[in-house]
Amino acid sequence: DQQVKQNSPSLSVQEGRISILNCDYTNSMFDYFLWYKKYPAEGPTFLISISSIKDKNEDGRFTVFLNKSAKHLSLHIVPSQPGDSAVYFCAASEGNYGQNFVFGPGTRLSVLP
Amino acid sequence: DAGITQSPRHKVTETGTPVTLRCHQTENHRYMYWYRQDPGHGLRLIHYSYGVKDTDKGEVSDGYSVSRSKTEDFLLTLESATSSQTSVYFCATLGQGRNTGELFFGEGSRLTVL
Q: pLDDT digit string (tens) for A12-35?
């Protein structure tokens, strides 16, 4: 059973609008969460992270929200740009050691001009 | 950018042949990882290393072995490749200092086992 779920395999958004990517987890011991972005034929690149002591973290156009009681996090991209079109992976961890990271299956975001 | 290079980037091989994928990093990061990416599964950890000659198994280690003889190099070996090992393989290192907790990935190695 997947510990980290991204139930939307794909999402299409109009340029300039908000993109919301969702992620759910089952392990209540997870205390560190990350989002990675992946373009075709490239490796994933780190986007933003949040620890369980916070419920929100912002970095420019990207904001991650964490709802611990619901075991849910979301990534908001505002405004969305065509260059944001990529696959987004959510990851969760107990502590911030790489061997503990559990990745979701990814959501493919398409930002339409 | 952690300066991670993987080789080969693409390989086609036949069932039963041995395959070695190489990961080289230039950042002197202590921790290194091998993941595989498959549709519907995201990234799954195969093996990781926490120092020279120190390695451990990940979630999907069966059929794979690793070696780390130098800080900068981490090798993944498929002793006898099977079609189920057709995948894209990513090497990663764990950032240190201000990048603690951040994984840096290589560009991937696409392996096809016929």
A: 999 999 999 999 999 999 999 999
Answer yes or no: do A44 and B107 touch at CB < 8 A: no
| 8 A C-beta contact, residue A108 and residue A95 | no
Residues 8-27 of A with CB under 8 A from B: none
Decide if pLDDT at A109 tops 70: yes
For chain B, say whether A46 makes contact (Cβ under 8 Å).
Answer: yes
Neighbours of A95 (CB within 10 A): 13
In the numeric block, the tokens 């075991």 are attached to A71
E-state strands within A10-106: 10-14, 19-25, 32-38, 45-51, 56-59, 62-67, 72-77, 86-93, 102-103
